Amino acid sequence: MKSLPSPFILINSAMSADGKLSTKERKQVKISGKADFDRVDALRASSDAIMVGIGTMLSDNPSLTVKSEKRRKERTLAGKDENPVRIVADSQAKTPVDADIFKKGSGKKIIVVSKTAPSEKVNALLKNPDTKVIVADPVGSGRVDLTEMAKLLKKEGIEKLMVEGGATLNEGLLAAGLVDEINIFIGNMIIGGKNAPTFADGSGFSENNLLKLELISFEKIEDGILLKWKVKND
Ligand SMILES: NC(=O)c1ccc[n+]([C@@H]2O[C@H](COP(=O)([O-])OP(=O)(O)OC[C@H]3O[C@@H](n4cnc5c(N)ncnc54)[C@H](O)[C@@H]3O)[C@@H](O)[C@H]2O)c1
Ligand SMILES: Nc1nc(=O)c(N)c(NC[C@H](O)[C@H](O)[C@H](O)COP(=O)(O)O)[nH]1
């Protein structure tokens, strides 16, 4: 069973037919087409928060906003902020103070750091409006403890958390038994390269404790396929 308390956590990723999230230079590539990006936008709009790891923040500088004006309006009509809370798992507070999450769209931002994050970097981030820094590192390991983070995010009122990568954060959350559902769009290209990030990097699972999934659905979208999986955390 998944350890509680935690939000419902869904990882959404797009990967090439050979399982890569981006190129060996860690350059973002459009794997999804228009229809899949629109599905992702709807998923963002239905979530309380969207999270990326610092690797993705530094390589892609994502804005993590809801793109459709109609969906933003629907959120505000329901009494929510236009955008879900935008969260970065960032052990050493390396998120640039002028990152697009601070410049584009309104709504709250949370940077999750470890106890050893440099205080001058933390203070600089806190100068951005609507920004909170949360320390999730109970034993002072210098790395965000993802289970503690989930607990603290639940306390912040986040019930549904959508994670948009990258490879290291995906694996960390899966290994901690925190992920409830995975949505993977497989696009019609090969990226290749042994150093190109895959859906789950990190240290990986061993033969006798592979993480098992249950297929919820499959759907052809444009020239790719969307797979929805439930994670069996028991
Ligand atoms: N195709 C897609 O759907 C998609 C989505 C997101 C990112 N990407 C790609 O993924 C790549 C980035 O992936 P990545 O693996 O370099 O970075 P990442 O985004 O997974 O961030 C990894 C970092 O998160 C931080 N983190 C903090 N605590 C952690 C913990 N306990 N466990 C794991 N991580 C923790 C660490 O500092 C770690 O280095 C980029 O190339 C990006 O373009 C692709
Ligand atoms: N669904 C999806 N399909 C892709 O083909 C692709 N490359 C990503 N990549 C995810 C990554 O985190 C991106 O950086 C954010 O999707 C950018 O988000 P913004 O548009 O800036 O809000 N995601």
Automatic annotation (TrEMBL):
Name recorded for this polypeptide: 2,5-diamino-6-(ribosylamino)-4(3H)-pyrimidinone 5'-phosphate reductase
Pfam families: RibD_C
SUPFAM superfamilies recorded: Dihydrofolate reductase-like
Region forming the signal peptide: none
Source taxon at top rank: Archaea
UniProt organism field: Methanolapillus millepedarum
Domain Bacterial bifunctional deaminase-reductase C-terminal positions: 7-227
PANTHER family, A to Z: 2,5-DIAMINO-6-RIBOSYLAMINO-4(3H)-PYRIMIDINONE 5'-PHOSPHATE REDUCTASE (PTHR38011:SF7), DIHYDROFOLATE REDUCTASE FAMILY PROTEIN (AFU_ORTHOLOGUE AFUA_8G06820) (PTHR38011)
Lineage: Archaea, Methanobacteriati, Methanobacteriota, Stenosarchaea group, Methanomicrobia
Gene Ontology molecular function, alphabetical: 5-amino-6-(5-phosphoribosylamino)uracil reductase activity; NADP binding
Keyword Ribonucleoprotein in record: no
InterPro entries assigned: DHFR-like_dom_sf, Rib_reduct_arc, RibD_C, RibDG_C, Riboflavin_Biosynth_HTPR
